[in-house]
Design brief:
A: mainly alpha; MetI-like fold; 11 helices; B: 268 residues; alpha/beta; Rossmann fold; six-stranded mixed β-sheet; four-stranded antiparallel β-sheet; 8 helices; 24% strand
């Protein structure tokens, strides 16, 4: 209760400071809009439906790309961890591509796929896959070998070993890898939406981009806030239950 | 199948280690881990293997478990050659090797779920029975990290006993525990062994532990790993770890161990 109260107090204070700075008129109101005008923009955008529609478009792209990325990355990571050949080939490739900022995929995606949904999806998938591969690989490699040995003596066959021992044992790494994958997917999608306008749907990135073109700072800041809130919420909804499970079972982290 | 029937299970197995040799090839050298080791273990016998580190005693246990393959010779369990690990020969490791993603109960259920021919309700009953046997019925839903070292080894013991293996292989299971906990477990393991007769092979470097638990003590010497001598310990059970008889047996074992170490040193 006390913690919630302090957290609320912190954010109220943050907005108050913001408001005070606007009131002091150090910068032009065009560059720094007041909290109220940002709020009014958001209310208006919700009323006329643009905000919800854009959020829907963005989230659909994000979730689709993200889950395809995991579906590709997880098995690839298991492969790189279990086969020397795959480690030396796909593993090295994944490590290299993971260091490539995902924005760098945008030009290639545009040339290959044109201004289409597929291009968007491609960028998100490329942003997700490699970090999931690396995290899975690391997770599997850090498992104490004694787990697999113990399972084998109890009659675990290779398939059972992978699904019931190796995967759950590497869960701490998998969750942090998926979290990182999510962050990369989110970043790459925003980059793609800001750079690329496609007619099949305007996402949050487009609204941000138009805000800049129209010099509508209230829109820019408003959309940024929406993006931050979505990031926070997905973190809480998608990952917090897993992290709580990890803390409880493994006994790691804060109490 | 009732719990009682399930607990009856097959009789303990007879084990034969038949002229087993093993080499480990490393980058710079080849280590001769076991040299022509032969050993017969009777049904329901408690055999303790003693030797200093590097004498190949853990390797021998791995080979009996089927986790390692011998380069020469073979291991027979009830006249069947051991080719791979199997749930008739369960292993208890020095590190409890409990799975942190499962509760205590889930850990004991792990091996049981791999045992065919049981309904899930029966498996749960069996798991509860064994957690009770090791005195942890109150910790059924606990997480592994919440247990002390001694409790972890008790869970590992319950996990190994639950699928009713015919042989129990114990690789220095108490080496990482404090003296108090260990002494308590010596009492417990003797009690449990009398209730649930298994063929047990127990590896340790602690001679007193060997004297306290064993029907027979096998003494091994290193480089290459060989069986040097076998002692019978025919004291009545349950044995008290701190009794004078155990101490006497232990000092005999120590003398034998030292003798063989000296011999090996001279031979080189």
């Amino acid at each position: 209760m006390r913690r919630t109260f302090l957290a609320i107090l912190f954010f109220v204070a943050l907005v108050a400071i913001w408001n005070a700075v606007v009131r002091a008129q150090i910068w032009s109101p065009v560059l720094l809009p007041s909290p109220l005008s940002v709020w009014e923009y958001l209310v208006g955008a919700v009323r006329d439906g643009t905000l919800l529609q854009a959020t829907g478009v963005t989230l659909r792209r994000l979730l689709l790309g993200y889950f395809i990325g995991i579906a590709i990355g997880l098995p690839l990571g298991l492969l790189t961890a279990s086969s020397k050949f795959v480690e030396d080939t796909i593993g090295v490739l994944a490590l290299g591509l993971q260091t490539l900022p995902s924005v760098c995929w945008v030009p290639l995606a545009l040339l290959w796929l044109g201004q289409t949904e597929s291009a968007m999806l491609f960028v998100v998938i490329m942003g997700t896959v490699w970090s999931v591969v690396i995290a899975t690989d690391t997770g599997v490699r850090t498992i104490p070998p004694i787990f697999a040995r113990a399972a084998r003596t109890m009659g675990s066959n290779p398939f059972h070993k992978w699904t019931r021992v190796i995967l759950p044992a590497s869960l701490p790494f998998l969750v942090s890898g998926m979290k990182q994958g999510w962050a990369f997917a989110w970043r790459s999608l925003m980059a793609a939406e800001i750079y690329v306008t496609i007619l099949t749907g305007f996402g949050l990135g487009h609204l941000l981009h138009y805000g800049r073109e129209l010099n509508a700072m209230d829109q820019v800041i408003g959309i940024m806030l929406v993006i931050i809130v979505i990031g926070l919420l997905t973190d809480k909804i998608l990952f917090s239950p897993w992290e709580r499970f990890l803390h409880r079972r493994w006994g790691t982290g804060r109490r | 199948m009732s719990l009682q029937e399930e607990l009856q299970g097959p009789p303990p197995a007879k084990l034969i280690v038949d002229h087993v040799s093993k080499w480990f090839r490393q980058k710079r050298q080849v280590i001769h881990a076991l040299d022509d080791v032969s050993l017969e273990v009777a049904e329901g016998e408690f055999v303790v293997i003693v030797g200093q580190s590097g004498c190949g005693k853990s390797t021998l246990l791995d080979i009996i478990a089927g986790l390692e393959k011998p380069d020469k010779g073979r291991v027979l369990a009830d006249n069947q050659p051991v080719l791979q690990p199997g749930r008739h020969r369960l292993v208890m490791f020095q590190d409890s090797a409990l799975f942190p993603w499962l509760t205590v109960f889930g850990n004991v259920m792990f091996g049981l779920k791999l045992k065919p021919g049981l309904r899930n309700s029966e498996r749960r009953e069996v798991a509860k029975f064994f957690l009770q046997l090791v005195g942890l019925e109150k910790f059924v839903e606990a997480n592994v990290h919440e247990l002390s070292g001694g409790m972890k080894q008790r869970v590992a013991l319950a996990r190994a006993l639950a699928p009713n293996p015919r042989v129990l292989l114990m690789d220095e299971p108490f080496a990482a525990l404090d003296a108090m906990t260990r002494e308590q477990l010596y009492g417990d393991i003797q009690q449990i062994w009398q209730k649930r007769r298994k063929t047990i092979i127990f590896v340790t470097h602690n001679v007193r532990e060997a004297a306290c638990l064993a029907d027979r003590v096998v003494i091994m010497s290193p480089t290459p790993g060989r069986i040097r001598e076998i002692f019978e310990v025919s004291l009545p059970r349950p044995r008290d770890f701190n009794s004078i008889e155990i101490a006497q047996h232990a000092s005999k074992l120590t003398a034998a161990l030292k003798g063989h170490i000296r011999e090996t040193a001279v031979a080189h």
